[in-house]
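User: I'm preparing a small set of examples for a lab meeting where we compare how different chains pack in three dimensions. I only have the primary sequence for this one, and I'd like the structure in token form so I can line it up with the others. Please keep the answer compact; I'll paste it straight into my notes.
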Amino acid sequence: MIDLSTWDLSIPVNVPATTIDTPRLVAGYQDGYFRSGDTLFFWAPVTGSKTDNAIYPRTELRETYASGALYNWQYSQADNVLRAAVAINQVPSTGKIVIGQIHCYGSTEPLIKLEYQYKEKLQSGNIVVKFRLTPTSEPEVIQIATGVLLNERFTYSIHLTPIGNITVNAHEMQWTAKLDGTWSGKLLYFKAGVYTQDNTGYTTEGGAATFYKLAISHQKAG
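Assistant: Understood. Below is the structure token output for the 222-residue chain.
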């Protein structure tokens, strides 16, 4: 069983989108967009509703305390890691879904997105990082891995150290960078699941993924 006690869930239903709180999630909540058990399955159709200030639908977990209260952190306070094993099962016509993030509380601009980009001609996809050096920067787009098949299981991790070193491992490839100090006062949080990067098409179009492992750790410094 994957531990859901430090997450809540956004599903693309109602306006704005619905949040399933942590206690309800832990109690075994499931629907057509999310299933839990030994694995987690996420489905976000292009026709789904959106969260506030978003233009795309998502079925996505967000960090919380066990009580359900939102958990936000400053990176200098701990060694912060998100680890997952996942397979991408479906992509929308754009080919793009986000499967992991470090987001910034009170902002629409995340620090980092990990995105799968399927290429129809190649019948496989790339994994890219979209990274903001500062909170006001335009995102840099860095390709990490290529040749990732649909339904192929792979692992990824996003690791942010107390001194601002960030490392992303995905599909046995690695990328590293150093944050600008302007991030130091920002409140951050992990997200994981399916954030479909498309909002047009039929109800059968969208993003889907199966997570075989998912874990967060915040190892306190010192």
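A couple of notes for your slides: The chain has one domain: 7-71+88-220. Residues 135 and 183 are 6 Å apart (CA to CA).

User: Perfect, thanks.
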